[in-house]
């Protein structure tokens, strides 16, 4: 996965930080399916995701509007995944919605 | 590392997404030193960091004010690390400054 190519700000970021349980059943398929499904939603701008060796996971998705975030949160298949997440996959998570105001890039 | 305990919003997030070069010299020491040093700055609220097996790294630091972010960006030892980052450690990075507006928590 590459850093997400996003347009000029302002736009919105959803920062999802999580620790997993030890229950792996179905998790990998769900995680990749949710990235594919998010990518198909209106006003989706990009996504970045990493889980470190210590278990902390960070997924940041970018959206053109707050309405797009509300629609994604309410999307039917995503709601099922959220319920499984609370039921078995996640020990803890924090979701932060933020408005991106400034961006700097570096590349070789 | 745990998800960061932060106060009620609003506050600010700096989302730093990166791909590394193959040059490891000094990188690990710098990365842990910068997390320690950031944690000592005024109005620092917390930090979360993960680098996945595919190489994408995401570090999100949280700050009480935009002034705190500007001060951290200008901090002398941090500026040296930034220069080394551009010079050898990072292939590519994006820094996004965002205002956190809403937060939801889940925990067992």
Main interface pair? A-B, 40 and 40 residues
Helix content range of chain A: 25-40%
Average the pLDDT over all residues of chain A and give the rounded result. 97
List the quaternary state of the chains: homodimer
| Helix and strand composition category of chain A | alpha+beta
Reported for the largest beta sheet of chain A, the result is:
4 strands, antiparallel
Biggest sheet strand order of chain A reads: 2-3-1-4
- The low-confidence parts of chain A are none
Terminal CA distance of chain A reads: 17 Å
Order of SSEs of chain A, N→C? EHEEHHE
Based on CA atoms alone, the radius of gyration of chain A comes out at 14 Å
Q: Can you tell me the overall shape of chain A? A: globular
How many DSSP-defined strands of chain A? Answer: 4
% residues in beta strands of chain A = 35-45%
Task: Tell me the number of helical segments of chain A per DSSP (H or I, 4 or more residues long).
Answer: 3
């Amino acid at each position: 996965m590459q850093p997400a190519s996003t347009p000029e700000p302002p736009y919105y970021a959803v920062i999802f930080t999580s620790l997993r349980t030890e229950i792996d059943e179905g998790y990998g398929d769900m995680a990749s399916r949710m990235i594919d499904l998010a990518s198909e939603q209106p006003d989706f701008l990009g996504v970045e995701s990493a889980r470190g060796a210590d278990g902390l996971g960070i997924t940041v998705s970018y959206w053109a509007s707050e309405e797009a975030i509300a629609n994604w949160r309410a999307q039917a298949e995503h709601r099922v995944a959220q319920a499984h997440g609370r039921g078995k996959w996640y020990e803890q998570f924090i979701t932060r919605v933020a408005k991106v105001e400034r961006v700097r890039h570096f590349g070789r």
